[in-house]
Specification:
The chain contains 5 helices and 9 strands; from the N terminus they run E-E-E-E-E-E-E-H-E-E-H-H-H-H. The protein is α+β, with helices and mostly antiparallel strands. Among the domains are: 88 residues, Immunoglobulin-like (Sandwich), CATH 2.60.40.1120; 69 residues, no CATH class. A hairpin with a 4-residue loop joins strand 2 and strand 3.
Amino acid sequence: MVKAQDADVLVKGYVVDGEEGKGMENVHVFAKGSGRVTNSRRDGFFAFTVKTTDTLIFSHVGYESASVAMWKAESSKIELMIRLKKGILMLDGVDIYGDYDTPEYLIKKKNEPMYMFGKPKSLTEKPKADVPLGSTNYGPITYFSKEAREKRKVVRYYAKAVKDTTYVRTLNDPKIRADFLRMYGIERSTFDEFLRYFNRAPIIFDRNNPADIERVLHREFLRWIRQREN
């Protein structure tokens, strides 16, 4: 009997760490061909229906990807046990980007005093009332309440700069780009076009978590590519 081409196959199983044998949560399982996708549960279990013409791609941050061709399936229901190996990607260099006016906070010395525009350099010196906001002629803050308030502003500003840096660095990660090109069979120009869309889209997620950024990237790419093809 000749096997039916492009038939449905119910695939279920577990994805575990190749060294520890523990179930892996949120492993991205992509069916290259039909475009179907799912993620593993906390215990590593996954289940979804694919086509016999598909190839399953299992990927997770920090691990080498694994693939299984469905044409080898001998029935309409199969069970898999996937063991992912930890992977190390060596980079020649990483460019870190941030807001153009943040470097002074990023390189600020640990014990360097806070400063505020137009404030006196000592308690005996009168404030310079004629010094406009934005001038470089300023002294140390002398009032604790205002100093604390300004420090909180700097902390928030620094946190935002670090978060944006993590976001941009993740989007420019060569491994993520290579995974997209390999998994979805697209050109680099298509991936760059998607990134331009992704940067403008009003999507809420944790920009300080590389794993969350990559998960949302895959999810939004599948939505975007369907709309683009239609």
